[in-house]
Amino acid sequence: MNTKSILIILFGAVFLSISSTNVVTNEFVILIISQPHIYILSQVHNASTFIPAHIPLLFTHSYASSLSNWYAIYPIFSSILHQYHQLKWLFICESQTRFNLTELLAFTKQTNDSYIGHGLYDSEPSIIHHYSFSLDNPYPDFSSGVLLSRHVLSLFLDRFSSYTKTIDFIIDIKYELNQLINELTNIKLIDRPDLFCIKYKNNCLTWYDGQYDYSCKRNDIQLDNIYIGIKTFVNYHETRIKFLKKTWLNEQLHYNFFTNEIHNETNRRFIVTKENTERGHCHKTFTILNYFYKNKENFQYLIIADDDTLLSIQRILRLIRCFMLSNDLPIVLGERYGYGNYYSYPTGGSGIVFNRQAVQQIISNCQCPSPDTPDDMFLGLCLHSIQVPLTHIPELHQAQPNAYSKDWLEHQQAISFHKFEGINVEEVYQTYLHENSSEEKHFHLRKDEF
After folding, report:
1. What does the CA dihedral 59, 65, 70, 71 come to, rounded to 10 degrees?
2. Residue range 254-307, pLDDT digits in tens
3. Phi, psi values for residue 345, rounded to 5°
4. For position 211, what pLDDT does the model report?
5. Which of 57, 377, 393, 408 has the maximal Cβ count within 10 Å?
6. Going by C-beta distance under 8 Å and a sequence separation of 6 or more, which residues neighbour residue 186?
7. How many helical (H) and strand (E) elements, i.e. helices and strands, does the chain have?
8. Contact 364, 353 (CB under 8 A)
9. Under 8 Å CB-to-CB from 59, ≥6 apart: which residues?
10. DSSP 8-state symbol, 448
11. Which residues pair with 230 in a beta bridge?
């Protein structure tokens, strides 16, 4: 059975699970954050089995065909209110969120608050949150769910219709949604970690059942099927590359450095691209794409990373095993950023994963406008034009660990971080990304999720 057939069956299963009764309570609606990929949809289907059929159940990816920035969530609000005239509460959560529905519904009838969840806090201003100094202002952790009343949604939409500020980049959805709600409604998130929990406790209304462990048992994908292209520059050969070799990069991996020049002409690991730019790097990235497709025919998967990207090779291998379900369909995995209402793109510093079919589609249809065009943004524009979806992997990180909420990182197994400035590189790797052989064996023995 091919992937498309499985997808149709899965959609049917999800539809049947929420449409098996004529008695529907439209006052409480659940919106699950989802994506149009078969592995994620399998998790969504599992989640739907915990939800009674009389509760309306929606999925963010269902709006992808009509809204280019559907993943930002707030563009969906209008459709939801138009569809559910009786709605009093919208509960936004992830597929791994679990809850005591009876108690949660009772809570909505008793509370005087209108925007409630588990609050996350930044420890310092960070680039992913536009260097905001509002460190005492919580934003919601979707993994434990967040409640929004109709009052908040209606007020938000009413004022958003006359909102004149340009939304240039969509980086961290939970943070930016919260900022918009705060600005447009003047309503702050009520932080209730005692009720909206990360780990299950007796008094919890909601809790997080744990991140996908990406433990799909497959023997057909090994490290020998993966090629890694690393963008670098001659001035970093003795600094950044040394850190890579001290952490995740070893001689058993198949990789090359793509650089502007080399001092040792016999070093087989370096490939000279001749053209170097201070920013953008589109030429270098497309050199890697073309080199992989034309010279590495025995490899099915390509990872492109920067010379200051820290990776967990074991975890990215497990990721590939779960998400690369077909070599006939183009698949791209990355950390998704959005460019306004136009298109999304995979952030380059966090690492991008392609299958061979995706690489073929990209190099056949797209060429860099100039060598210093921003490579990740142009890749996003290219994927948008050739209608190849980007699958967002939240465990890939464009920034350093201190840019993210500590509470959020605690319930996540990170796959990558980016940038070496101002950190102890080896300590960050050991703390967040390193796995020893016993841990790797443990994951292979765990029950398959899909």
Report:
1. 70
2. 999 999 888 765 678 999 987 776 766 899 999 999 999 999 999 999 999 999
3. -150, 155
4. 73
5. 393
6. none
7. 14, 22
8. no
9. 14, 31, 32, 34, 44
10. P
11. 257, 305
List the end-to-end C-alpha distance of the chain, in Å, as a whole number: 15
The count of other CB atoms within 10 Å of the CB of residue 41 is 22
The span from the CA of 10 to the CA of 12, in Å, is 5
Give the sheet arrangement for strand 89-94, strand by strand. 57-59, 28-33, 89-94, 146-149, 115-117, 190-191
Q: Which two tokens stand for residue 305?
A: 């990373």
Q: Which two tokens stand for residue 262?
A: 């080399």
The tokens for 182 are 């705060």
Decide: helix, strand or coil at residue 259. strand
Per-residue pLDDT tens over the stretch 92-142: 999 999 999 999 999 999 999 999 999 999 999 999 998 888 889 999 999
Q: Are 9 and 40 in contact (CB under 8 A)?
A: no
- The bridge status of strand 301-306 relative to strand 336-339 is unpaired
Tell me whether residue 189 is exposed, middle or buried, using C-beta atoms within 10 angstroms of its C-beta: 0 to 12, 13 to 18, 19 or more.
buried
Closest CA to 249 of 311, 316, 319: 311
pLDDT in tens, 395-412: 999 999 999 999 999 999
Classify residue 79 as exposed, middle or buried by CB count within 10 Å of its CB (0-12, 13-18, 19+).
middle
Neighbours of 426 (CB within 10 A): 13
What six digits make up the tokens of 156?
A: 């938000």
pLDDT band at residue 47 using 50, 70 and 90 as cut-offs: confident
CA 211, chain centre distance (Å)? 12
- What angle is formed at CA 264 by the lines to CA 261 and CA 265, rounded to 5 degrees? 75
DSSP states of 179-234: HHHHHHH----EE-TTTB-SS--TT-SEEE----------SS--GGGEEEEEE--G
DSSP 144: G
CB 315 within 8 A of CB 393: no
DSSP calls for 47-99: HHTTS-TTS-EEEGGGGTTT-TTGGGSGGGHHHHHHH-TT--EEEEEETTEEE
Beta bridge partners of 270: 257
Residue with tokens 């809204």, as numbered in its chain: 67
Alpha-carbon distance of 135 to 403, in angstroms, equals: 12
